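Input/output pair, single chain:
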Amino acid sequence: MCGIVGYIGNKQAHPILLEGLKRLEYRGYDSSGIALLNENQIEVFKKQGKVVEMENLVLSAGLQSTIGIGHTRWATHGAPNNINSHPHYSNSKRLAIIHNGIIENYATIKEGLLKRGYTFESETDTEVLVNLIEDVLVHTHVSLAEAVRIALNQVVGAYAIAVVEQGNVDQIVVAKKGSPLVIGIGEKEYFIASDATPFIEYTNQAIYLEEEEVGLISLEKGIEIRTTANKLIRPYIQELALEIESIEKGSYDHFMLKEVNEQPKSIFDTLRGRLLVDKSAICIGGLNQYEKILERRQNYYSCMWNLLACRLGCRIFN
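Output:
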C-alpha cells in the first residue's frame, strides 16, 4: 500500500513530512519522495529505497518551506526506481502530485495528451493525471481545485491524491475515491495523510474524505469540500482517540514483530465488553437491529436446503 502525507501551516514542512512517511512505513513501499514549495518553485526530492535515504537528499538541500507533500510508493505502473517514484511534476513543473490507487483509463488519456504535445518521463499513470490537470488549467483558466475536479470527471479508477501549484503556498488540493485520505485540523495548520498516524501528535481533529470528494485546504479560507459533481459538502469533524504510543515501533525492530507480539492484547481488546461470561454468549453491537432479518434468512435457507435434500433423496431412491 502506498502512503500519503502533507502539511501546510507555519512550521517547517520537511521534518513533519519525513517523520510522517516513517510512520507509514508499516504499509510497505519501495521508494519515497517529497515536494516542497516556496514562492518561486516546487522542489521535488525522491529516491528508490528507504525513507532515510531520501531524507539525506532533503536535509542536504537546506530548503525552507511551510508547505509540502510526501509519498511512499509500492510500484504498480512502472518499475520501482527514482523516475517512477512520487511526487511527479507536470510538464511545465507548475504542478506536483502524489497519488495512491490506479487510473484504469490512463493509456487513453495519455494518448490524447501526447497528441497535444505533452511528454512523459515516467511509466506511471500518476504523471498522466497531473498533466491532465495542467491541461485543464491551461485551457479553462480556473482555480487549481476546480481543475482537479474537472479532470477527475475524466478518470476511471481509484485515487487518493494531493496536488500543489507553483507559487501558490496557501493551498493544497486533495481528492479521494477508493483509497483512504484524511485531513488533520490543527491550530492555523493542516495535515493530510492516508491514515491519522502521521499527525496524531499534532491534532486529534480529523475529516475523512468520502467517495469522489475534492478538498481545498487553504490557510486563508480553511477547508472547502465538493463532490466531483460540484456539490458543496459540509464536512464532519471527528475527534480521534488514537494514542501516539500505539503507532510507534517501541522496542521492536519491525512493525510486523510488534503486531505478532501484540496479538493477545488485540484479541483481548476486541472481546472487551462483548464477552458475556455469565450468559455464555458473545454480544456484537449493531447486529440486534438485524436479528429478525437474519432469522428469516436462516429459516429461508434451511427450507431451501431441506427441499434440495428431499429432491436429491428422491432422485437417489428413484
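The longest strand covers residues 31-37. The radius of gyration is 24 Å.
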